[in-house]
Sequence to fold (298 residues):
Amino acid sequence: MHNPITPFTMRLLQEPERSPVVRLLLISTGAVLQAINLNTFIHAGGLYPGGITGLSILVQDIIALKTNVIVPFGVINMVLNILPILIGFLFIGKRFTLYSCVMIVLVSSLADVIPGASITDDILLSAVFGGILNAISVSFCLLAGATSGGTDFVAVFISERFGHDAWNYILVFNIAVLITAGCISGWPQALYSIIFQYVSTQMLQVLYRRYQKVTLFIITNEPETIYHIIRDETHHDATKLPGIGCYKETERTILYSIISADEARKVIRLVRKADPLAFINIVKSEQILGRFYNKPKD
Fold:
């Protein structure tokens, strides 16, 4: 039997923590993409992307309609983000929230500086590709250990507190916001905005999988080695089950564990390296109840 992989060895195999410079670079990239998206696909299609961003655009349009005064988007966006920021500080993490504030300030500032451009006159194309670009910008921010603000704070809070993916719940909330926008500004843009938000939500689930969970069933002859890989790499535990291979009547061991979906690729690579003959079954877990380790954000 191979010697179990020690915590020291596992630390060498783990990816290094992102430095503040890398995190700020990721956030800046996401902010630029989001500001460009606001001034191209979203404005060109007259879309309301939902959440705080959509609410900010809606408030801006209402003020312009009633008073003929154009209030800068950035001012409205930062004011409306005050409550979500407080939720972040109180329930998620201070450094996480501070990096998120950088994203909010950058988007709010750049959106009023970057000139607008119309790429297409087709509202459906604006909704689809705007949603894709929005998801890409948000994923950059999440990879930096931050969020783009607004309802993203709420999504992260629900995911951390209750242990399952919250993006679809936020989608329902955004649809409610967009229905209100439709009553005020017209239904075509509101309905296309729902398409925008749906595309963005589904694309984000593909790009960022931390809050999705998978169940691993691993049949192996190296249970101790495999267990140490799971424990030291993910900080999650495993359950050892005895089994008998029916074909040769040989004793085997089954390890059962639940980990985050974004950890699965690395864990499986290390498992295959430790035991090339291991049989691995990966099952998507819709929801789990009980204690589940989440990496601290601070």
